[in-house]
Amino acid sequence: MRDLLRAAGMHSINNVVDISNIVMLETGQPMHFYDLAAISAQEITVKQGLNCDYTALDGETYKLEEDDLVITSQDKPIGIAGVMGGDDSKIEDNTTGLIIECASFDRVCIRNTARRLSLSTEASLRYQKGIEPLAAKRPSIVRWNC
Fold first, then answer.
1. Could you please report the per-residue DSSP string of 53-98?
2. In 10 A of CB 110, how many CB atoms?
3. HSE (CB half, 13 Å, CA atoms) of 45?
4. Burial of 114 by CB count in 10 Å (0-12 exposed, 13-18 middle, 19+ buried)?
5. Which residues pair with 54 in a beta bridge?
6. What does the pLDDT look like over 55-95, one tens digit per residue?
């Protein structure tokens, strides 16, 4: 998996995150995995209208604005939708459960947020270019040799 990711210009992070990135490479559908134990309500919702600072997976703190799509749990941000997940719900070596986000987001909204935050990611680039609208609902078979 590491070689495949490296060939695609991506870094290996850990087995779980690497699998989500390989699925994205194979299907074109960005996905994000959250640590289930870090999300007490064990549910996620997409919202707009939050004005707050948020620390993403890259360790940087970003100012979220009302027009940004944000992944939340109990009205608390846990990720910047279509751009990057949060540091407080990331997959760790001791993660035992996952919440898997597989969604379709408005490409203009993702582009505006990514541009304003100067945060370009593999996921945000794919959403900006447009993904198959029903890709998140379509079952896929991913095959690779490891």
1. EEEBTTS-EEEE-TTS-EEEETTEEEEETTTEEBGGG---TT---E
2. 24
3. 9
4. buried
5. 62
6. 999 999 999 999 999 999 999 999 999 999 999 999 998 99
